[in-house]
Design goal:
With about 475 residues, the chain is α/β, with parallel strands linked by helices. The protein folds into 3 domains: about 1-130, Orthogonal Bundle (Fumarate Reductase Iron-sulfur Protein, Chain B, domain 2), CATH 1.10.1060.10; about 150-250 and about 405-470, FAD/NAD(P)-binding domain (3-Layer(bba) Sandwich); about 255-405, FAD/NAD(P)-binding domain (3-Layer(bba) Sandwich). Helix content is about 30%, strand content about 15%. It has helices at about 1-5, 15-20, 30-40, 50, 60-70, 70-80, 85-90, 115-125, 165-175, 190-195, 205-215, 230-235, 270-275, 305-315, 335-345, 410-415, 445-450, 455-470, and strands at about 150, 150-155, 155-160, 180, 220, 240-245, 250, 265, 295-300, 320, 345-350, 350-360, 365-375, 385, 395, 400, 405, 440. Strand 3 (about 155-160), helix 9 and strand 4 form a beta-alpha-beta unit. The chain starts with a helix and ends with a helix.
Length: about 475
């Protein structure tokens, strides 16, 4: 019994051979029995260290206790008091670096599988016994309070419908504010819709989470580019008095090396947007063009690189992932790295591209690389890679996908010349999200640069709480 308590309850996965040919979700979720078994590992610690590791302060011991008692519906209600997107967070949050990292169980074994249990609770549906992914989202009854300013309901405009925007909107709506989200793309969800693949985050679940917000009274207007279609002054004319900029980090970064403009070299943003938001993976039902070819190279070591590599693999390519450091230094989640390796992605570690070569038809035909070795730590705390002389070699490819990072979207900030920003484009905001402009807030990747879903949600919630408490 003691040994069993040291190990997480196994979560079923889609068989490896099936994964390579489908975009179906890989992690299949807990059954009710599995969830109750895992919940039984929680020690219900007096000091609740796991809660302090959660950016949105979910009452973790309470929701786990509810699952252990067989009340999945109550567990979901507890989570949704502070987390507007639990089905999403249960899948894509790096719990191993947050709540689970502080779990006391982890001192002598594996921590409680908090993320897997959160996913279970988010999907719980009494009529089917819980734990499956067709469950309707739980509609939390928000307070009857009406937020007013000088006798007029306060209208808040949230710019962007990614994790930060959705979190801010949900928190404000529950407090009685009138909230409208303005989204530049044709579907809401931000990176949840365009960036994270179906096999990690089914889009029907994203839609259900967003539907739960609109049931609270949040309105969402798509195809509206703030700074182009509408300005903040236009929104003020419509009665909005508070603004939360959550425009994300959708500007891809490149290495600026020779051949980077060749046809067939593209950013992971473009590739994943075509595959996910524009449904290229469902050809011929959707005729969105996406070029992969027989061999693809993905450059990068983060979660976006893993997503791009695993998508290219499912679209029929032989995939090589190139990363300039070693596996231990990769910023991607360990689970995503393991899944990529299981599925057949080949890793070329301690390797760096120096040039893209071309075929006779003018398209990319290969990536010239050099081997690297690790020296002293750099500003990030990771050991700095340096080139090994005479180690050049080439990897053939039909497509090269660059996933080395993203900068904040400049469209909104360029339309606000008085808004204080960092040299690299991030909006300057304090811990509550306040910018230098009155009643203008900013949160998520627009402030921090590309980060995690849950950190963006936490930032969006803090903005909302500051507006509520003004």
């Amino acid at each position: 019994m003691a040994d069993m308590a040291k190990t997480k309850t196994y979560m079923p996965l889609l068989p490896i051979d099936k994964r390579r040919a489908t975009f179906e979700e890989v992690a299949l979720g807990y059954t009710a029995e599995q969830a109750r078994k895992e919940a039984g590992r929680c020690l219900n610690c007096k000091h609740r260290p796991c809660v302090s590791g959660c950016p949105v302060n979910v009452a973790i011991p309470e929701f786990i206790a509810a699952i252990h008692e067989g009340d999945g519906e109550r567990a979901g209600e507890i989570i949704r008091k502070t987390n507007s997107l639990p089905a999403v967070c249960g899948r894509v949050c790096p719990q191993e670096n947050q709540c689970e990292k502080l779990c006391v169980r982890g001192r002598q074994g594996e921590p409680v599988a908090i993320g897997r249990l959160e996913r279970y609770a988010a999907e719980f549906e009494p009529r089917n016994g819980g734990g499956r992914q067709n469950a309707e989202p739980i509609n939390v009854n928000h307070p009857a309070k009406t937020a007013v300013l000088s006798g007029t309901p306060v209208k808040v405009a949230v710019i962007g419908s990614g994790p930060a925007g959705l979190s801010a909107a949900g928190t404000l709506a529950k407090a009685g504010f009138t909230v409208s989200i303005f989204e530049a793309l044709h579907n809401p969800g931000g990176v949840l819709a365009y960036g994270i693949p179906e096999f990690r985050l089914p889009k029907n679940l994203v839609k259900k989470e967003i539907d739960a917000l609109t049931s609270l009274g949040v309105s969402i207007e798509t195809n509206v580019v703030i700074g182009k279609s509408l300005t903040l002054d236009d929104l003020r004319g419509e009665g909005f008095s508070r603004f939360v900029i959550c425009s994300g980090a959708g500007l891809p970064q490149f290495m600026n090396i020779k051949g980077e403009t060749l046809p067939g070299v593209l950013s992971a943003n473009e590739f994943l947007t075509r595959v996910n938001l524009m449904k290229a993976y469902r050809f011929p039902e959707f005729d969105t063009p996406v070029r992969v070819g027989r061999k693809a190279v993905v450059v990068g070591g983060g979660n976006v690189a893993m997503d791009a590599a695993r998508c290219a693999l499912r679209l029929g390519a032989e995939v090589t992932l190139v990363y300039r450091r070693g596996r231990e230094e990769m910023p991607a989640r360990a689970e995503e790295i393991e899944h990529a390796i299981e599925e057949g992605v080949r890793f070329e570690l301690l390797t760096n591209p120096v040039e893209y070569t071309r075929k006779e038809d003018g398209t990319v035909g290969g990536v010239s690389c050099v081997r690297m070795e690790l020296g002293e730590p750099d500003a990030s705390g990771r050991r700095r890679p340096r080139e090994i002389a005479g180690s050049e070699f080439t990897i053939d490819c039909d497509t090269a996908i660059i996933a080395i990072g993203n900068a904040p979207n400049p469209t909104v900030t360029s339309a606000l010349p008085d808004l204080a920003t960092q040299k690299w484009g991030g909006v300057i905001a304090d811990d509550d999200g306040r910018t230098n402009l009155p009643n203008v807030y900013a949160a998520g990747d627009a402030v921090s640069g590309a980060a995690t879903v849950i950190l963006a949600m936490g930032a969006g919630m803090r903005c909302a709480m500051d507006i509520i408490n003004m």
